Automatic annotation (TrEMBL):
NCBIfam families membership: apt, PRK02304.1-3, PRK02304.1-5
Species name: Lutibacter maritimus
Name of this chain's protein: Adenine phosphoribosyltransferase
UniProt-listed Enzyme Commission number(s): 2.4.2.7
Catalytic class of the enzyme: transferase
Subunit structure: Homodimer.
GO MF annotation list: adenine binding; adenine phosphoribosyltransferase activity; AMP binding
UniProt gene name: apt
Amino acid sequence: MNEIEQYIRVIQDFPKEGVLFKDIATLLQNPKAMQLCKKQLIDLVGDQKIDKVIGIESRGFFFGTLLAAHFNAGFIPVRKPGKLPYKTISELYDLEYGTDAVEIHIDAIKKGERVLIHDDVLATGGTANAVCKLVERLGGEIVQCNFIIQLDFLNGKEKLKNYTIASALQY
């Protein structure tokens, strides 16, 4: 058992019936668990050079900023449409019923910068894949897509098969 797994709360039937939601709120409430998780996420990257860390709204912000500080890199928030104040580009992605989008500031990444993408959970991969497309449109090089939890049964890694994926926990 991974050391941080004991700090993940499982909530049955959230957000809908039949889903076992992996809640990181209990991990965030415990300083020891946060330190363990941060160390594991850093270890997943190793000694690779990172210029920017992207945190995907909103739970990707928690450890994304910590990763950026550790790697002496800039932090970039990627958000839902209309939440960023400056000029943005956006990328649509499919949901079970319909579409959604994510946005990034047009000046967030310079051509050739090495980017670490972080979020709490890799589920179906739609959001992370859209973020990868944004990074590439701005000329960034994706070093890794980094997650606390990977839900293998949802097969999100298929949408990210062209990228290096790493996660602390897999279910």
